[in-house]
């Protein structure tokens, strides 16, 4: 896995669990007030919380800012985007 991320850089800044700033974002796959699914240079990233919303989005620069109460951040294994979580999990509940 380390070899895949060689040359790629991603930074996450979480301020008091209320503001999350991320760079290295390629696409916003799905989002609602409780969950965001982002495609990043280092894999799919799921952000879960409460009252989440986009404060700033600039995909040309790969930057996303999310406000709300952040409860968890997790990277999905490659190929597991439809692992029953995120958008696919919500569609087929």
UniProtKB/TrEMBL annotation:
InterPro entries: Spore_YabP, Spore_YabP/YqfC, YabP_sf. It comes from the Bacteria. Pfam families: YabP (PF07873). This is Sporulation protein YabP. The lineage of its organism: Bacteria, Bacillati, Bacillota, Bacilli, Bacillales.
